[in-house]
Amino acid sequence: MARAGEFELIERFTRPFTRGEGVRVGIGDDAAVLRPPPGEELVATVDAVVAGVHFGPRFTPEEIGWKSLAVNLSDLAAMGARPLWALVALATPPRADAARLVRIGRGIAACARRHGIAVVGGNVTAAPVLSVTVTVLGSVRTGRALLRSGGRPGDLLVVTGTLGDAALGLEPGAGPGPRARQRRPRPRLALGRGAVGVATAAIDLSDGLLQDLGHLCRASGLGARLEADRLPLTAAYRAANRGSATPLEGALTGGEDYELLLAVPPSRLGALRRAAREARTRVTVVGALEARRGVRVVLGGRPLRTRRSGHDHLQGGHLLGRGRGRA
Amino acid sequence: MARAGEFELIERFTRPFTRGEGVRVGIGDDAAVLRPPPGEELVATVDAVVAGVHFGPRFTPEEIGWKSLAVNLSDLAAMGARPLWALVALATPPRADAARLVRIGRGIAACARRHGIAVVGGNVTAAPVLSVTVTVLGSVRTGRALLRSGGRPGDLLVVTGTLGDAALGLEPGAGPGPRARQRRPRPRLALGRGAVGVATAAIDLSDGLLQDLGHLCRASGLGARLEADRLPLTAAYRAANRGSATPLEGALTGGEDYELLLAVPPSRLGALRRAAREARTRVTVVGALEARRGVRVVLGGRPLRTRRSGHDHLQGGHLLGRGRGRA
Questions:
Q1: CB distance A30–B87 less than 8 Å?
Q2: Are residues B287 and B227 located together in one domain of the fold?
Q3: ipTM of the complex
Q4: What one-character DSSP code corresponds to residue A27?
C-alpha cells in the first residue's frame, strides 16, 4: 500500500472521533467552532507525550493514544472541570506505518468516548520521533474552579487512589496493575468535580507527590506535614519494594500517578468522603497544610530524608536521567 | 550557569507573556481558567512547527517563536475570528541552551502582543528535536464564522496579499522580503474579520493556492476556474522566476503564504474592497467558483498544466521531499 499523504492520514486518524456537545464545526475546517456552556468558565491545558520520554516500545499504539489524552484530562480533573473538547497534534516520522497512527487515533478515541468528549481539531506533521500533543478544553461553573492557591493552614491533605504504581509499571517485570497505571492512566474527573465547593485547593499528581505538594504549598503560600506511614499503596507496590532501603521513594517521587492531591478543611472531610463514594474513588488523608513554609515528611513521627524531589519532564526525570529505557 | 530545570525554564519562558482579556487564571495552575465573550462562539485550532521541517538553522529563535504562533493565527483569520488566547507546548532537546528557549518565548510574546492575545498555558518536554506546538482560541459572533463550505457557483475567488514569496524565502540567496514572508508571516486577521458577512467561504493559504483551493472547492461541493495571469506577485518573485519554464509554480503550489482565499459573491465585491481598505490589505480577484467539479487553471485563456499539487506537511512537502534543507 502506498504511504498515506497527510490529508488522507488526517482523515483516517480522525475518523473514530465522535462529535459531541457544543461542537458546531469539528475537524475539517481551518479551525473548530465551539459553543461554551453558558454561565461557565472555560478551562484549558496542553500536554505532550514523546517517544522515549513518556512512552517506550512496549506501549501499544492504543496505549500511546489513551495516555496522551488521559494526562491532560487529569489536569482538568484537578480544576474540578468537566471536559468537553480536545485538539490533537500528531508528529510522526515520515516513514511511520499509517496503520499504527490510526491505532493511536483509536486509543485517543477510546479515552475520549470514555469521558464523553469530542476531538475537534487535529494536525499531523513530520518529526524525527513520534509525539502526541493534546490540548483539552473543559468548563466549570463561573468562579468555582479548584486552584492550587486556595489552601489554608490546617487543611487536610487528601490523595485519591494509590501512589507509586505508575513508576513501578516502567520496570521490565511489572505486573498488570502497575503496567496499566503507567500506560492507561484513569483521570479522576468524577472526584474532581465532586470536590468543587469542598476542597480549597487541588493539583494533579504528575511529577510525584513531594514535588506536586511543593507546588501546591508555594501557590498557597504555606508549608505541609506529610505522614509517610499513611501513603496509600497497593499490594503490588509493597511487594516490589520489600527489602528496599527506600521503600517509599517511588510513592513520594515516582511521578505519573495522575491522582489528585486536595486540600480539605477538617469540617468538610465528611462531604469529601461522600463525594468520593459517589465517584467510587478511594481517598486517604496523608497530612495537613501548615503556616510554616516547606514540606516536612515524617515516618513514625520522625523526619524522613528523601533523595530525590521528583520528576523533571525536561530531563526526562527518572526516565532518561537514570539511563533506563521506557517500558 | 547550571541548566535550568523544567520549572525554572517554564517560568523564564513564559515571563514575557502578557495577561489579557478574559484570563482569570493563566500559566501556573493545572490549567487556565478563561471567560469566553458572551454571545460568541469559540474558535480553536492547533498547529506545530518542527526543526528541519518548518524552520531551519538560519531562523533566529525569535523567528521560530513568532512563526509558531502566526501560523495558527492565520487559521483563525480564515474563520473571521478574533484571537484571544494561546497555549504553547515546547519540545526541546535536553541539552538545549536555556537562553535560546527564552528567546523563542520572546518571539511568541512579540507575536502575541502584536495581536493582543495572552499565552495562558505552557508545557515543556524533552524531545530529540526542537518543536513548538501552539493551540489558539478565539471567538466570533455566534453563527458568523467563515467556513470552507459556504461557497456558491459564481462567487469570485479573492486572495489577499501576494503569493509565492514565502517559498522563495527558503532559497539560499533570498532577499529580505521573501525571507520575512517565510520567517515572520503576518496573519490576515483584520481582513478576515472584515470579511465576516461578506465572504461566503474562506481558507488560509498554508499548503499552496492550488491545494487549498481544492479543499475549499471540495468542502463547498464545487469546482473553480483560476486565472493564473491574475495571481498577485511581487517584483522579487517575478525577478527570481524570470526565465523559469514554470514561473508560476511557486505561487500556485509553494505553500506557507498564510494569505487568505475568499469566496465572494460579485454583488459584495465592493463591500470586500472596503473591508480590505480598512484592513490595509491588498485583495485580488483570481477566478471564480463553478458548479463543475475540479480546479481548472487557465493562463492567457488556455489550460495550464501544473506539476505538483502542493505542500504535504507529512512528507515535509517541497522542504524535505526535494532534499533541500531549511533556510
A1: no
A2: yes
A3: 0.90
A4: B
